[in-house]
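Practice set, problem 2.
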Amino acid sequence: MIGFEDTGREKASQLPFKVAIERLKIKPEDVMMVSDSVSRDLIGARKLGMTTVLAKYGQVWKETEKGKADFEIDDISKILKIV
């Protein structure tokens, strides 16, 4: 787990994701980031080349940033079709 304390940056930045993939010794294209927030979580992951999934079922407020995530799901069971 990589927290703010590890990088001094929020997840909208690429740095927390970069640190995670370096520590795990994996490629960004082998990672899928699932989140209910495009602006808070998915932007940094997508910029690094990770697959991004907007979990619309978990949103407290609705984000309408179409095209900002590779996939959108309204139920966690739909993740299996993407994987």
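Problem 2, part (b): a different protein.
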Amino acid sequence: MLNITGNSYKHCDGVSRRGFLTAGAAGMLGLTLADMLRLEAEAGVGSSERAIINIHLDGGPPQMDTIDMKPDAPMETRGEFHPIQTSIAGIQISELLPKMAANADRFAFVRSMVGAEGRHDAFQCMSGFDIRNLAGFGGRPAMGCVLTKLLGKVTDPAPTYVDMMQGRPLVRNSARPGFLGPSYKPFRPDLSSIFNRPLEPGMVNELAALGSNHTVSLSLNAELNAQRLNSRNALLGSLDKIRREVDATGMMDAMDRFSQQATGILLSGTFADALDLSNEDPKVLEKYMVPDRPVVGRFTTADEPKASLKLLMARRLVEAGVRCVSLTISDFDTHSDNFNRMRYTLPILDHAIVTFINDLEERGMLDNTSIIMWGEFGRTPKINGNAGRDHWPRVAPAIFAGGRMRTGQVIGSTDRTGGEATSRPIHYQDALYTLYHNLGIAAERTTIDDPSGRPQYLLDEGGVIPELV
């Protein structure tokens, strides 16, 4: 059972929502609260009901083994899998994704993602930028951290942004606040005891070097009641006043903000309940569990079949008021044994995403929940000597669903081997522009100030994908 603890305050930050909505400079440089409310009214839905689920396919998914099959390509390219017809005439995807194929009207398949930086983490998928952009100020913030700045307040019973990524994105701190500073870090629960995702040997030390405050312990000291909690916060606030005044890093303010929100979380219980799957209807839990299937060997860094429950937890978090959830499904870094590893992992993803969409629809949440599934790059068209596929930043796949987006279509195309985009290239920033749009935020007009006081647009390349909106 999961509960939020008093002892974990120092390990994470609070968030702020509408109180900080005025974004950047006045006039043409930014949107004010009044602007945002007007846009929400025009859209017919308050953005407070809308959310983003960012699913990172850790390692980079192979486009030609998933949604961009190349059955007429040479054997050293097309691999071992066959395409199957989807519910949309003329659209085929991998035989390992039969549930997605049967529900293709609910998905938009982008076969032409370009602009990958080629780095092995999820930062570009979270922010739209490479790590060099504004590095002198701490780098660009992840989308969820931006939403914390724009839409959050410390009195919310749930954080604006919850990062549940495991594996490489966790170790590489992909969902980081960048120049916004530690006050806008994601709430990052420690899921290691729930979902077993072993790390690559070289990453064990990387994660240890990040320290115990990289994730939040979720266990409650039973002796710490609400009255003692409020008294303790008041005392700490008094003792730390001088330290805050001389602290140049922002860490003291971050701790203050989290202390305030942690109090609200403890008193409401809503957020803790969302993270506790024992509170879920057993029939719903059963739906999310991957059905028994022929045993296929699990690779060292792959998720367990019950990783499908990460999406159930994401739904519960959105119901509790979280606006952005990031999570991972592993493993797609298939330098060796690509085809057996895909036989293991893709059925988990296939079952999880279709169950998730059905669940959201049954609860009336699908139109207000925008979903994206993608990785840091694609994989090489040519199969290597280890029956694997290597890194391929030139083109990658992505899948959109929900959020009132226009689904049941394919966007973009690649050449006969799946190695280059030949039509309708879509940049990583285009995808994030679209997700911001779905929340009622015009990323091309909204700014946040960097540490020098200069307003920075949320994104600076491309725009909303018109085919989706």
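Answer key, part (b): The chain has one domain: 19-211+270-457. DSSP finds 15 helices and 16 strands in the chain.
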